[in-house]
Amino acid sequence: MSFGEIVTKIDDVVWGVPTIILILATGLIMTIAARGIQFTKLGRAFKGIFKKNEGQGELSGFAALCTALSATIGTGNIVGVGTAIAAGGPGALFWMWIAAILGTATKYAECMLAIKYREVKEDGHVLGGPFYTIEKGMGPKWKWLAVIFAVFGALAGLMGIGTMTQVNGITSAVNMAFSNSSVAFVFRGNEYSWATVIGGVVVTLCAALVIIGGLKRISKVAEKVVPAMAIVYVFLGLSVIIMNATKIPAAFVLIFKSAFGWKAMAGGAAGWVMKQVLDSMRKGIARGIFSNEAGLGSAPIAAAPVQTDEPVEQGLVNMTGTVIDTLIVCTMTGLAIILAMTNADFFAVYEANGWAGVELTANALSWDLGGDGISIQFLLMLCLAFFAFTTILGWDYYSEKCLEYVTGGKMSVVMVYRILYIVAVAIGPYFKVQTVFDIADVFNGLMAIPNCIALIVLAGVVAKETKTYFEKYPKLQ
């Protein structure tokens, strides 16, 4: 059995039915505890994004949201959606929506609790996240669970979502855009082009320059890059939808048929139908969590340093990240792919070539928009490069905070980690895309489990804090 096959087996176990139920149940419980806050207070949440913050902390609310978005809007939105649909069918997009709708309440709760239980040091330095939520909210006897979360958080950044998947996505897009690039070397039967090598080196050097600068440099880059890259990609997605508006009903039919196995029911056995539905759910939810990170416990680490004395206020701001990331950006990618799949000619070519990830997304966008596809591939490469690069930066910050908690703030350990992190970015282009996504999924799931347990235990605190705040401030301050 190959390394990739072993990782896939582990991924199947970690993202089995129990984990899916835990994450969906957490979102449902947080929705109830916060009184459907993602539906009733979403407008207020968006208005609060640009509100001037006052209180203890290191970052503005907008900077914290951009830092969190810099880590979430990445390869998951372009490559991840493509791999999810290729592996779980068009129905995977439906389950991404479900995970995001419930996950919006989860994101609110975990970010709010991170501010409530954060620690402000004597020098004004702030540290917070699920590790302190578990230790302070659940009690010191649960510190072992907090340490487990922090360890998995550091490993997730180093070995999966923060490094290899992102740089792999960038170099795959670069290689696709410069398909005529000559072969640089061959390793274990796999050819790697000069486009891949040069792209990997450039990303590694740029990441190293910013990472060494720490949180404030990361947040400054995020504030400038995240809004710009999101606008460009949303414009591209809207162009696809407008040009293919008449096909949208057929695309939604395909999504729902695939999500519930209706197509398979016509001629398949019940066991096969259930397998199709479960695969669609598992891939959709896993990729949804990979993309928006709701329930993962990462965004609360970025929210904790916000200059505010009102935890609920920043919880509202941060929950908009899930809406932006999955319900807007991922949906545009998914619809572009599925709109192309409604065409029999495209579907035949897709199946014959076995497209997945960025290849599937790029070819679908090219088909939807027409033309030779070269300009679309180049534009997609630029979007993916910026998306993934800021994710690399954001996850370095998350991982460092996890290490700071585990080691008691030993910066010597953090500096060693930074070096290892940069090395992981450097070697990321030379792994298979499916393998790096499976590795990331494994650590995502292992992070989410202790975080979701804490959220469920502290549901009463979420309900009390939410009720108290809105009684105190019935209108936006």
Sheet having the most strands: 2 strands, antiparallel
Helix content: over 70%
- Global geometry: globular
What value does the Rg take, in angstroms?
A: 21 Å
Structural class: mainly alpha
Q: Uncertain spans, ≥5 residues at pLDDT below 50? A: 263-270
- Termini separation (Å)? 59 Å
The average pLDDT value, as a whole number, equals 84
What's the β-strand tally?
4
Q: Tell me the β content.
A: under 5%
* Spatial ordering of strands, largest sheet: 1-2
Query: Helix tally?
Result: 23
Can you write the helix and strand succession as a string?
Answer: HHHHHHHEEHHHEEHHHHHHHHHHHHH
Produce the secondary structure layout:
Blueprint: H1 3-14, H2 17-33, H3 37-40, H4 42-47, H5 61-72, H6 75-88, H7 91-116, E1 119-120, E2 126-127, H8 130-138, H9 143-159, H10 164-177, E3 183-187, E4 190-193, H11 194-211, H12 215-243, H13 248-260, H14 262-265, H15 270-292, H16 299-303, H17 311-341, H18 344-353, H19 357-369, H20 374-407, H21 411-427, H22 433-457, H23 459-472
Antiparallel strand pairs: 1-2, 3-4
Helix pairs in contact: 1-22, 2-7, 2-22, 2-23, 5-12, 5-17, 5-20, 6-15, 6-17, 6-19, 7-8, 7-13, 7-15, 7-17, 8-9, 8-22, 9-20, 9-22, 10-11, 10-20, 10-22, 11-20, 11-21, 12-17, 12-20, 13-17, 15-22, 17-19, 19-20, 20-21
Task: Spell out the key features of this protein.
23 helices, 477 residues, 4 strands, mainly alpha, two-stranded antiparallel ribbon
Q: Can you walk through the features of this model?
A:
There is one protein chain. The protein is an all-alpha fold. It is 77% helix and 3% strand. The protein has 23 helices and 4 strands. It has a two-stranded antiparallel ribbon. Strands 3-4 form a two-stranded antiparallel ribbon. Strand 1 and strand 2 form a beta hairpin. The longest helix has 34 residues. 55% of the residues are buried. About 2% of the residues have low confidence.
